[in-house]
Amino acid sequence: MKTGFAFCIFVMVFASVQAASLRKSWYDLLPSIQQTKNRVGHVWDNCTSKGGPAKIKSVILTPPTPVKGQNFTVKASIELNKEVTGGKVKLELMFEAIVITNTTFDLCDKVKEYGLECPLSAKTYNFEMIFHIPNGLPEGLYAGNIEATNQDGEELICAVLNIFIQS
Predict the structure, then answer these.
(1) Is 52 helix (H, G, I), strand (E, B) or coil?
(2) Rounded Cα–Cα distance for residues 90 and 120 (Å)
(3) What are phi and psi of 83, to 5 degrees?
(4) Do residues 160 and 51 make contact, with C-beta atoms less than 8 angstroms apart?
(5) What pLDDT shows up at residue 60?
(6) DSSP characters for 135-154?
């Protein structure tokens, strides 16, 4: 369902084809609220380890920062260097230091939502996702991370999110 907190949905969709296991806390990677306000157009950081079985080739966000009442488009290109037969996706999301969700999904179940099935072969996958940012979304800092692992527990992809929503 693509309602409610659109940013949360973006995170779950983005996580559908990603995986990771952070070596240090994602909290250490979060900028302050003021730094986030000053980094207009910069809402995510790639924390994927180099040399792993997957990498984020590109992510294009339009507009660069989500705006209340408007659509937010995410185009992502993700390269798998190894077949993925299973795995987990962990999503942690906070609003102004209040935990909204801390949950784990089955990777293969999530990719089914986008017309894919496990095993995922070693190749590049391109996605375009469009979300509507509700007008009623509270103003403030939304932060979190997406971690996922493959069937062997290897990190695939990791992303840290820092989104400041304002009126």
Answers:
(1) coil
(2) 19
(3) -60, 140
(4) no
(5) 86
(6) TTPPSEEEEEEEEEEETTS-
